[in-house]
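Deliverable D5.2: sample structural annotation.
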Amino acid sequence: MREAGPRPGTGLADEIAAEIAEKGPITFARFMEMALYLPGKGYYTSGRGTWGPEGDYITSLDVSPVFARTLAKGLKEMWEALGSPSPFVFVEAGAGRGWLTKGVLESLKEISPGLSEAIVPRLVERSAAEREAPQGAAWHSELSDIPPFSSGCILSNELIDSFPVHRVEFSDGEFRELYVGCDGSGFKEVPGPLSTGELQGYFRENGVAPFEGMRTEVNLAAIRWLCAAGGLMERGFIVTIDYGLPAAELYSPERKGSLMCHYRHTLNDNPFINVGEQDITTHVDFTALANSGLKTGLDVTGFTTQKNYLIGLGILDELKPPQEGSPGIEEINFNRALARLISPGGMGDTFKVLVQHKGITKPELRAFSFRDMARSLF
């Protein structure tokens, strides 16, 4: 059983401890929700910097602007598969600073003037402190604030990994949930009955057989989010970019969960320290997203690694040759950053891309021409 670490101090940790004192042990999902999103105090809502060299982690967009430009090529292909509609709503969920959408919009002016004219950008971000609005883009605090639309695309990049999760273990033939309690020494795990029947059905619906000693996380919020996203559009695509695995790999006996905490570019697996000052994430179950999508009219277009996806979209065409008469330092640095996006064993393999479509026959997207791994989801 994981011990709490330091005693709760002031502010956010005290608020969580006070709720536990009043209501008893809370689900880890509630603890994570408060630690990350409590208004004005959570990791994402306190106004502190989280991205980039001065924050706690690096995103693909921080590595190279080619990431946004290549995604713009994929967006153009999806728009054309829908018949080049106008307007075409583009939603970036978990938009952070707005830089990804800004890069996509700037790239489209050259790549596809037609889509550039038709696109209606909408950004969703709970933290107002991070927002830097690209020209013409509308900001929303929640996905539910966006009006339903006819045609478009909803994209998330490193969003679902930060949704609050339930923690469970399987022992003596039954599941137990791991709640969060608090005593004089700090936060601690408290085993108890499942808080919702959805947890029991989750593994059955995704073809996962529990095993003795199994200990993992369940992201019910991801399923609810996907269903809400799919319900916004009549026709279109949902693009999910995140680190994660198909269920068969994610819940294999070799793993004991995937929870990680990011703090000043270091990793640890203790969510009960640095409360409100460190990110808490878990791997995405892409099988659950695929299965949940099928129930709401979202079919799988393709699934692959970030490396395969970007190569399929022609990222290698963006490599810069050295200029004659120049030492080529700028070109070398540019190409090194690009290579990092598709590096085997690094970002290129760790991050996966799931694309789902609704309201149209399955399109053959160039993005999955390099390698489609969709069979591994089922």
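Annotation notes: Residues 12-377 form a domain with the Rossmann fold fold (CATH 3.40.50.12710). The first helix runs from residue 12 to 23.
The annotation will be released with the project's public dataset once the embargo ends.
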